[in-house]
Write a structure and sequence with these properties.
alpha/beta; Rossmann fold; five-stranded parallel beta sheet; 5 strands
């Protein structure tokens, strides 16, 4: 079974793009820890409504059993990222979906396979599911997503745009 553990930022930005389906296409089961849903609940908007709808059908809440890893990670990461990485380790997740660079580095160090919002969009473009990666990146910028121009250009080159 392909299990993915997802953090707050990818959920919010994919919801803003109305692209939460990209998570479902990549995994048999998508879960997030309680801290992620607490962060989302703190900012009610249209994206949080879409995420709540996903929770009613395919997005599950799963708590970390061993909090010691979370406590160690919280020295450098926020609660959501810490719980996501700890849960991914505990559940032996195939992927951990994170946007924060430091969190992605931690995930990689502990053997988790990180992917972010942009990686999911690029994969969808390469599969022919998106007409334009550039338009999705532009929509992300308008929604408040931050990415370096160099990374944007590299992704667009890889997508053939």
């Amino acid at each position: 079974m392909r299990l993915w553990v997802v953090d707050t930022s990818p959920l919010i930005f994919l919801a803003k793009l109305d692209r939460l389906d990209l998570l479902r296409k990549g995994a048999d089961q998508v879960v997030a820890p309680p801290a992620v849903f607490q962060e989302i609940a703190g900012h009610p908007d249209e994206a949080s409504v879409r995420i709540d709808d996903a929770r009613l059908s395919w997005l599950s809440v799963r708590a970390v059993k061993d909090r010691r890893v979370v406590d160690v990670l919280m020295a450098d990461l926020d609660a959501g990222e810490s719980e996501v990485i700890a849960l991914a380790m505990e559940a032996k997740a195939e992927r951990v979906v994170l946007d924060d660079l430091d969190a992605r580095r931690f995930a990689h160090r502990v053997g988790a396979a990180p992917v972010g919002t942009l990686g999911l969009l690029l994969a969808a473009k390469l599969r022919g599911e998106l007409p334009s990666l550039r338009s999705e990146i532009d929509r992300l910028h308008r929604a408040g997503f931050r990415v370096s121009p160099a990374l944007s250009q590299a992704l667009l080159r890889e997508a053939g745009e």
